[in-house]
Specification:
By secondary structure, this protein is mainly α. It is built from 6 helices and 2 strands. A two-stranded antiparallel sheet has the order 1-2. The chain starts with a strand and ends in a 5-residue tail after the last helix.
């Protein structure tokens, strides 16, 4: 049975929201990592170090509008629950990000040493 956890998010200026975080299946991890919907919104994609709001949305029952009303620090309990229930997701995401950075660095290095086209 899939693990779940409820997290109560308490904003400074409003009513609390209870969000249910769920453990992702391997297929859901694959789908979430191959279809990064947050790319269209750079702010959502860069909210946290190494992952974005879209990654949290894939792991819980909240909407983007629900989560955007919170500060990053107010979302910390949700981030912690997502990391605890889905370490595989974050591990694979980190490996993919590292690999992409290495490829970009190699391409940049090659462009510096490649002869100019005539």
């Amino acid at each position: 049975m899939r693990a779940t956890r409820q997290v109560c998010l308490q904003p400074d200026d409003g009513d609390s929201v209870v969000v249910t975080v769920r453990e992702l299946t391997i297929a859901e991890v694959r789908s979430a990592l191959l279809t990064d919907e947050a790319i269209g919104d750079p702010l959502q994609a860069l909210v946290f170090d190494g992952f974005g709001l879209g990654d949290l949305l894939a792991q819980c029952d909240a909407s983007a509008a629900d989560l955007e009303r919170f500060t990053p620090s107010e979302l910390a309990p949700l981030v912690d629950a997502c990391r605890e229930l889905n370490p595989f997701f974050f591990r694979v995401r980190a490996v993919l990000a590292r690999s992409a950075s290495e490829v970009l660095a190699a391409v940049e290095q090659m462009s510096l040493i490649a002869p100019a086209a005539s």
